[in-house]
Amino acid sequence: MYIFLTILIVIAAVLLTLLVLVQNSKGGGLAAGFASGNQVMGAPRTADFLEKATWTIIALIVVFSIAAVGFNKGQQAVTDDQSAIVVDEVPAAPAAEAPAAPAAEMPAESAE
Question: What confidence tens digit (pLDDT) does each residue in 39-83 have?
Fold first, then answer.
C-alpha cells in the first residue's frame, strides 16, 4: 500500500506542476485565450477552475503523504517484530567445559 500511495503522490505532483505551468502569474495563462465574457468556460471561470484544481491536488498530496507515513510505520512495526533475535534459544556452554582464561600477570610493586 505504501508503494501505491507513493505512486499516487508522484502522479499528483506531476499534475500539480502542469496546472501551475498552465496558469499565468499575472492572471493570463490558459484563461487569456478565452477573450469573450459570454462563453461557458470564459476567462474568470477557467481561472477559478484552475485555482480550485490546484488547491484540490495540494490537499490530495497532503492526505496521501500522511497516509503513506501511517502505512510505512505499520510495515516497520511488523518488520521489527519479525527480525527480533531471541536469545533464550541459544544453549549456554557448561562451566566445566569452558577453557580457563590465563591469569593476568600483575606487575610487582616496588618497595621504595
Answer: 455 556 777 888 899 999 999 999 999 999 988 887 666 555 555
CA distance readout (Å), 91 to 19, 49, 88, 94, 98: 64, 70, 7, 9, 13
Q: Is the pTM of this model over 0.85?
A: no
The whole domain housing 15 covers 2-34+42-77
Task: For residue 94, tell me if it sits in a domain.
Answer: no
33 burial type by CB count under 10 A (0-12 exposed, 13-18 middle, 19+ buried) = exposed
User: Do the Cβ atoms of 55 and 63 come closer than 8 Å?
Assistant: no
Domain count for the chain, please give it: 1
Q: Please give the Cα distance from 24 to 34 (Å, whole number).
A: 14
